[in-house]
Amino acid sequence: MNPSLLHALQDCPPQLAQALRPYLTADTFNASFSAEEIAALQQASGLSATDLAVALLPIAASYAITPLSQFHVGAIAHGVSGRWYLGANMEFALAPLQQTVHAEQSAITHAWMSNETSLTGVMVNYTPCGHCRQFMNELNCAQQLTIYLPDCAPQSLHHYLPNAFGPKDLGITDTLFDPQSQPFASHPDPLVRAAIEAASQSYAPYTRAYSGIALEINAEHWVTGRYAENAAFNPSLPPLQSALIILQLQGYPVSAITRAVLVEIADASISQQSASEATLAALGVHPLETVTLTLE
Ligand SMILES: O=c1ccn([C@H]2C[C@H](O)[C@@H](CO)O2)c(=O)[nH]1
Ligand SMILES: [Zn+2]
Fold first, then answer.
1. Where in the chain is the domain with CATH 3.40.140.10?
2. Which protein residues have their CB within 5 A of the ion that is ligand 2?
């Protein structure tokens, strides 16, 4: 178990810590809890679902990487399947601040990359910033989404983001978490195929510049990341950030990356290549392989 996770576990109420330990120490722990696991944790700890989620926030925040702020934010996205997905903020020394991942984006992307079809709520240990409120307004559940904060009554996203600007203002009916399947051709290299699969499922209704990333880990397996656009453009999550979220939540250091592949569309109106290369370089990862393809 990584030291910050162990530290967070030690700070949990004793009954919860005892019940959580077997999950957190399992090699297969992937920073999420199924509905059955949540029920078992509630039974063992005597906590309501909301109090359990509050108690798990420090576990989520223990995944934070904060070389710039040392400010640890933890979030939990509640999937419609009943599974809870942890997330934490991620900062990149030597890269522009725009590359930062917020905890809410991490938890939500974690659920999306795990093929959850929608969310019911998001819990965070600090009030969500404007950028995160806007990011959440892109979700297919934006009208029903509940925001949970410790010591605050649950409120709808629209309580936190009145008079919202969203996809409809740009004439887009698609929303984030709607199933996507862009018709990319296949490729002989399995890692490139993984990046193609991610690009195919990416969400880019504004530019149609679908893109995905695959990061090979220890030359054995990989994690992928999908691009997620936003109506307000800036809160869009690049595919590299999406993949780095999954890498971190699966417990791998950036040094475990042995190859990085970006797939994007040939002659698209925007490109992730230079920003992804720069962020990877700041992390000490070289080089980025870029494959550009046309849609079939
Ligand atoms: O809603 C918020 C606000 C801030 N942060 C992170 C971003 C950055 O890493 C640090 C300081 O802003 O906190 C979040 O994760 N979520
Ligand atoms: Zn935020």
1. 29-170, 190-293
2. 102, 129, 131-132
